[in-house]
Write a structure and sequence with these properties.
The complex is a heterodimer. Chain A has two domains: 10-431, Amino acid/polyamine transporter I, CATH 1.20.1740.10; 433-490. Chain A is built from 20 helices and no strands. Chain A has helices at residues 10-21, 25-38, 42-66, 73-81, 83-116, 121-129, 131-148, 154-175, 189-200, 202-205, 209-212, 220-249, 259-267, 272-304, 323-339, 342-370, 385-399, 406-431, 433-459, 472-490. In chain A, α1 runs parallel beside α12, α13 runs antiparallel to α14 and α19 (433-459) runs antiparallel to α20. Chain A starts with 9 loop residues before the first helix and ends with a helix. Chain B is mainly α. Chain B has one domain (2-75). Chain B has two helices and no strands. Chain B has helices at residues 2-31, 48-75. Classes of the chains: A mainly alpha, B mainly alpha. At the A-B interface, α18, α19 and α20 of A face α1 and α2 of B.
């Protein structure tokens, strides 16, 4: 049973923000950003990410203080834009949780593989070979625990992490670090640094978990903004210092071990790597459990509002937990953790949340216009420039990396595909069969004609075939069926 | 009307079958079930873009085909 009385003070609020932000992401996202995208300039990329996060969080402060209710972002967007936009934001938030959970499952497996090296290289090799299977098993176990209603250990994990990271940073500084070039030397280095900022952005936005718990915080008008801003401020020096020390002790190269574990091996000999592996595993499992709970809460909220089937609200008779919602989300997470790569999942989780950030900033602008007399205990400074800058930065974070990293392009295009599925789901629920049939007929007609045009362009050599492994006559038949089905659906009489 | 009924049944069933095959083909290429990747002669690696395009096409086509089949069943 969820308690909704206001029981948490400012300290608890800050701990909630930090427990959301300090997670497994740092153990998994730094690797690709450092070794592939930008090198030592990840330090400045992280600083930029932290500052952008601060900018966006100012809008969260105003809305969180004005509407300290269950539902967080979904509630703000629903208040500002009503039905469809709220549904879309709920879906993006859900997708971000699902991608994040899959990333956490893979991160757990990597840290387990590293830790098992202590036992024997053979054990490590077999774990690495079975990464998808182990990730799926981890999801299944966590889903079972979620259904049974296991307690969370968020605050303890946060304190332990801050302690471990502080020991790592201070040991690194005492050991002495070589000078590191943390800013891009030339203009050519900027795109890589910006792509790294986007890729590593999930390291910051976990602090939104504070917003989800705003309904339980005392004096929310003051404590919610203070909690968000203080946790956002604390996390920046922590991450920047951590990356600075890690970059200082691990030169660029090809390694099999995770970057942060390698750095810990150098800074704290003998125990450092293993300590970080245990911390990484704990963080990954904790994040996996949180993501399962978050995704379940989002789809139940949307189900309650009539956007999704009511079955998702079913509660387990014995454990009193939402088992249908948990199992449904877990199936998606298992598929993604089995087929997804870290690079793809990192961008995908980032994109889903960035879209929600943009919508929250837009909601702030709309609510200021539509409800000027609403009580606002905290007002975003420099309005309207701050939320407008938040929207622009969100869009830049979303679009820019696709021009320089194929993984970002794949994640965005997949996101567009998933959005199409989301839109179809919405129309299935809200339009009724007759109108849906006409809409799908139009879509089918469009897809069939597009397929024919693409084939024609490939035939005359204007472009390379999109699916070279599918024979032309098969494509022709498929597009013909799609066009005829489209016409039949469009001309239906219901 | 009879021509439309027959066409709706035929195209609906065909589209549903093609859609299911598309989804199986996409997943087969990705996971290399039954050595499906050999069909492409290693010409191209199935990227997420291809996978998504095939899955979205399959998803839309399954619903579209099912709606036609349902229309035919209700008109009998």
């Amino acid at each position: 049973m969820l308690k909704t009385e206001r029981e948490f003070g400012l300290f608890d609020a800050i701990m909630m923000g930090l427990s959301g932000a300090i997670g497994f992401e740092i153990f998994v996202l730094l690797d690709y950003a450092y070794f592939q995208l930008t090198g030592p300039t990840i330090v400045s990329a992280l600083l930029l990410g932290g500052l952008i996060n601060m900018l966006i969080m100012l809008s969260y402060c105003e809305l969180g203080a004005a509407m300290p209710k269950i539902g967080g972002e979904y509630t703000y967007i629903k208040t500002a834009y009503k039905g469809f936009t709220a549904f879309i934001s709920g879906c993006f938030r859900w997708l971000a949780s699902i991608f994040g959970a899959a990333l956490a499952a893979i991160s757990f497996t990597r840290q387990l593989a590293y830790f098992s090296l202590i036992l024997s290289p053979a054990v490590q090799n077999s774990i690495l070979a079975q990464t998808p299977l182990i990730a799926v098993i981890a999801v299944m176990i966590l889903a079972a625990l979620e259904i049974k209603g296991a307690k969370k250990i968020g605050a303890i994990v946060v304190i332990a992490f801050i302690a471990i990271f502080t020991i790592f940073i201070s040991s690194g500084i005492l050991r002495g670090l070589p000078p590191v070039e943390i800013f891009p030397k030339t203009l050519e280095g900027l795109p890589g640094a910006f792509a790294a900022t986007v890729y590593m952005f999930p390291m910051f936005f976990g602090m939104r978990s504070l917003i989800a718990a705003a309904a339980r915080i005392k004096n929310p008008g003051k404590n919610v903004p203070k909690g968000i801003l203080l946790s956002a401020l604390l996390i920046i020096p922590l991450y920047v210092a951590l990356a600075y020390v890690a970059v200082g002790v691990v030169p660029l190269g090809n390694y099999n071990e995770p970057f942060l574990n390698l750095a810990a091996e150098n800074v704290i000999p003998e125990v450092g790597g293993a300590l970080f592996a245990v911390a990484g595993m704990a963080a990954s499992l904790s994040a996996l459990g949180t993501s399962l709970a978050v995704q379940s809460s989002i789809i139940r909220g949307m189900s309650r509002d009539g956007y999704l089937p009511k079955t998702l609200l079913s509660i387990h008779r014995r454990f009193g937990t939402p088992y249908v919602a948990t199992i449904s989300g877990s199936l998606f997470i298992m598929i993604l953790s089995a087929i997804g790569t870290i690079e793809f999942l990192g961008y995908a989780a980032s994109f889903g949340s960035i879209l929600v950030f943009a919508l929250v900033n837009l909601s702030l602008l709309k609510l200021r216009k539509d409800k000027p007399y609403m009580e606002r205990p905290f007002k975003t400074p420099l309005y309207p420039f701050t939320p407008i800058a938040g929207v622009i930065m969100s869009m830049a974070l979303l679009v820019f990396p696709i021009f320089i990293d194929v993984n970002a392009a794949s994640a965005l295009i997949s996101g567009i595909g998933l959005t199409a599925v989301v839109l179809a789901t919405y129309y299935i629920r809200m339009m009724g069969r007759y109108r849906l049939q006409i809409a799908l007929g139009g879509a089918g007609l469009g897809m069939g004609i597009s397929l024919l045009v693409l084939m024609g362009l490939a035939e005359i050599g204007f472009m390379s075939p999109m699916f070279p492994y599918i024979p032309s006559y098969v494509m022709l038949v498929v597009s013909a069926i799609s066009i005829i089905a489209g016409i039949l659906n469009v001309t239906t009489r219901g | 009307m009879k021509v439309r009924k027959t066409l709706v049944a035929l195209v609906g069933m065909l589209q549903s079958i093609v859609a299911v095959l598309t989804v199986i083909f996409a997943l087969g290429l990705h996971f290399n079930f039954f050595s499906v990747q050999a069909l492409s002669n290693g010409e191209i690696e199935l990227s997420y873009v291809h996978l998504t395009a095939l899955l979205v096409f399959g998803f839309f086509s399954i619903i579209s085909g099912s709606l036609l089949v349902q229309e035919w069943l209700e008109s009998r």
